[in-house]
Amino acid sequence: MVDLDQCLEQSYEGKLLSEIVVEQLCFSFKELLIKDPNVLHMRTPVTVVGDIHGQFYDLLEIFKIGGTPPQTNYLFLGDYVDRGFHSVETIIILIILKLKYPSRIHLIRGNHESRQITLNYGFYTECLTKYGGSSRVWELITDTFDYLILSVIIDDSIFCIHGGLSPNIQSIESIKVIDRYKEIPHEGPMADLVWSDPDIELLNFQISSRGAGYQFGLNVVNKFLSENKFDKIIRAHQLCNEGYQLHWGGKVVTVWSAPNYCYRCGNMASIMEIFDSFNGPESSRFNIFDASPSSNQEYLKFIGSGMVDPSNHQQDPDELDEESQKRKEFDDQFFNEYFNGIPKELDRKAPQVEYFL
Amino acid sequence: MTDRKINIDSIHIDNARKMSQLTQKSRIPARPGQSMTTNLTQKWSSSPKVAHHVSVPALSTKTSTSSHNSCSNPQCDHCGSVIVPAPVATLPLTDAPSISIGNWEVFTTRKPILNSQDTEQLEKTLGFPIPEMTFGHNKVQVFKLSEDRSIEWSIDFNAIDALKMVRKNVDPSELLQVSYAQDWVNARQHRKGDEIMEIFRPFDWSYTSDYKGTITSEVPMTIDNSKAIPTSKLQTGSILFFNDMILFEDELGDNGISLLNIKIRVMKDCLLILQRLFLRVDNVIFRVYDTRVYIDFEKLEVIREFKRLEASYQEIRLQINVGTGDPRALMRDTAWVADHCKEVFKEREYVQLSG
Question: Region (Disordered) spans which residues (chain B) (predicted)?
Answer without folding.
Answer: 21-47
